[in-house]
Amino acid sequence: MKKSIKKISNIVTQITVGEPDFPGVSPPNMWLVAGFDRCALIDTAYGNVDEIDAFIEAWNSAGSLPLSNVILTHRHRDHIGGIRSIRDISGAKILCAPEEHASIVEEIGDVFINQVTDGTKLHLGGVTLEILLTPGHTLGSLCVLLDEESLIFTGDTILGGSTTVISPYHGDMSDYIHSLRKIKSKNPKNLAPGHGELITDASKRIDAYIKHRIYRESTIVKALDEGIIDIDGLFIKLYPKLDSRLHQTARDQILSHLNKLVSEGRVQVKNDGTYGLIA
Ligand SMILES: [Zn+2]
């Protein structure tokens, strides 16, 4: 399996194992951050043997300082699968957002996971990580600010190569747009995503993400205004040529936008399940 261990600065190492999957989504990144006294790891990938070996190799290259914390950006399997192995190897304390805790425990089983609040700081010796709760992709998604490098680790809130998916079932589109603005307000220079390469034009990328969501919402409002009343109709109108493997994801995105519009009182769900603009 293809393995990449890339030092992006004296402090940060990107660890990635595997090849891009359909539709071009890169394999998950683990990010190792080394201070003078301690290290922390952001995300644990799937936890397969090659990934764990790559983590150990990167940790050794970073001087094998004690790994004080593993921070989980969110609940998805490709970010939490290595928790048990990495905890056993390192004894690190595992952290996640409160809203994500139950789902992660359910997925991974009997591993003790601490819950962090917004603004929690982790001191690694000359390097400080700050937790930013950024719900949206999932309700308990978080990002991590490394102020010394003007860098934010974004998990799946912002990806290296494409826009992300906001699940209508365990994510929230309104929260997501707020979270993008929150990330932007920290003025990061670079973003270290959960998949894909380091993003070096952070502000531009965040603006493009916000613009994309606002544009998508406006196309849904316009279609509702033209008399389209359900997800099937909106899907045909908005995604006429989409690869069939992405159909469900696209429908989910439409539903996430509709949920947002309903919560804002701009759209109503009628008794028969159809949607309509509120005049
Ligand atoms: Zn995810």
From the structure above, extract its key features.
Metallo-beta-lactamase, Chain A; 279 residues; alpha/beta; 5-stranded mixed sheet; single chain; binds zinc ion; 7-stranded mixed sheet; elongated; 2 domains; 8 helices
CATH architecture assignment of the largest domain:
4-Layer Sandwich
Instruction: Kindly estimate the percentage of residues that lie in beta strands according to DSSP.
Output: 15-25%
Overall pLDDT: 95
Strand order of the largest sheet: 1-2-3-4-5-6-7
Morphology call: elongated
Bound molecules: zinc ion
The total beta strand count reads: 14
Please report the distance between the alpha carbons of the first and last residues: 55 Å
Please, what is the CATH homologous superfamily of the largest domain?
Answer: Ribonuclease Z/Hydroxyacylglutathione hydrolase-like
Structural class: alpha/beta
Q: Radius of gyration from the CA trace?
A: 20 Å
Which regions contain 5 or more consecutive residues with pLDDT less than 50? Answer: none
Q: Provide the CATH top-level class of the largest domain.
A: Alpha Beta
- Determine the oligomeric state from the structure: single chain
Count every helix, treating DSSP H or I runs of 4 or more residues as helices. Answer: 8
CATH topology-level fold name of the largest domain: Metallo-beta-lactamase, Chain A
Helical content class = 25-40%
Summed up, the domain count is 2
Largest sheet: 7 strands, mixed
The helix/strand order is: EEEEHEHHEHEEEEEHEHHHEE
